[in-house]
Specification:
Elements: E1 14-24, E2 28-38, E3 42-46, H1 53-60, E4 68-73, E5 76-77, H2 82-86, E6 89-92, H3 104-114, H4 119-132, H5 148-160, E7 166-170, H6 178-193, E8 197-201, H7 205-211, E9 214-219, E10 222-227, H8 229-235, H9 245-255
Parallel strand pairs: 3-8, 3-9, 6-7, 7-8
Antiparallel strand pairs: 1-2, 1-4, 4-5, 9-10
Helix pairs in contact: 3-4, 8-9
The structure holds adenosine-5'-triphosphate.
Domain ABC transporter: 12-245
Keywords: ATP-binding, Nucleotide-binding, Transport
Pfam family, one: ABC_tran
Amino acid sequence: MPALRRDPGTALTEALIVRGLNKTFAKPAVANLDLTVRAGELYALLGPNGAGKTTTLRMVAGLTKPDSGEISIFGVDARRDPAGAKALVAWAPDEAMIYDRLTPLEYLEFVAGLWSVDPKLAKTRAEQLLAQLGLADEARRRCEGFSRGMKQKVALAGALIHDPRLLILDEPLTGLDAAAARLVKDMLQARVDAGGTVILTTHILEVAERMADRIGIIAGGRLLAEGQLEDLRAQAGGAGGSSTLEDVFLQLTAESQPA
Ligand SMILES: Nc1ncnc2c1ncn2[C@@H]1O[C@H](COP(=O)(O)OP(=O)(O)OP(=O)(O)O)[C@@H](O)[C@H]1O
């Protein structure tokens, strides 16, 4: 497959282009997958358990090595320039990985250091993010006593600390209470409104239906459909004009099950 190339005369509108991506563990987890995420959109990657969502996004974030395929992030070829591509992306996994012995501020300053963010700027950003996420009072308390949702918010702040152009979140709303989920949704929406690009996975289809500009549905490591809800309805063939995302999702993923 030829390397991804961009006509220098055209404006950059794609945040992420994935072409022919493959990864096999004991069996294929991602199989010849193509995805396109446009700059400035919120893209929801949906699929049943084991569909290959996390594996795909880990490859995009440079955490899992693909067997083959192309990944381009804002025009940077991730295979030729892995460090350059990685610098544009932040990844927040579904299980928050933070250091219990650090306070949120210390953790955020540590992560900012990994990205070479100026320490003064890092402190200001860290305080802003923690305030936005309702953790200002906990900023100087060790994370060890935090609830799962609080840890998740700290991890989200960690993903945002270097102001990534492409933010990737795996199940960001799982385990959050209604108020915290609203807070995170509002933050993500504000980020997209300001021109940022967000990719998230979720099993909460109402969230995808309400928030996503475009949606990709995968199963068995393959892309089944991609686009806005009406595109997905059309791609599902039999789905009626008033069918919900849940109807379309269930129809497409049932069709993909081996007989
Ligand atoms: N490190 C690994 N070693 C072996 N198999 C793996 C590994 N990571 C993922 N897999 C397998 O790859 C397939 C896809 O898993 P993945 O975690 O990408 O799915 P997912 O769509 O994110 O699922 P879920 O919605 O359940 O989180 C599964 O069969 C899984 O068991």
